[in-house]
Target: Ig-like domain-containing protein
Amino acid sequence: MEETLTITRTVTTTQREEQVVVQQVKPVFVTPLEPEIYVRERGIARLECEVDSHPAPLVTWFVNGMEVKPSPHYEIQYNDGKSVLLIIEVGPQDTGEYTCRAVSELGEAISSTTLYVQEPAKTDV
Model:
């Protein structure tokens, strides 16, 4: 004689509908560049700005109207809305106007500063 065991399970599924609202924000500087920055020759200049935007913007740096590209002389960092331009081994040729430009599909924001290179500190011999 063969016995058959039947197991019945009832599974109740609950569905929950969530509505996510994403607010779009055109680029705006939370921390703009300082109006003027002074740095010693042969030092490192650090230019920093922070932008708030959703969707995330494309941030580009310019010096005297020309786009800055990463190189051994220029290092560009971007993390969570904060953009930093490092100028390594600053020289007199680095004096000028620097601009941080943030662009998204909703608009753009621009912040500028003038960088002044000072003579290196004199050391006593």
In short: Confidence is low (pLDDT under 50) at residues 1-6.
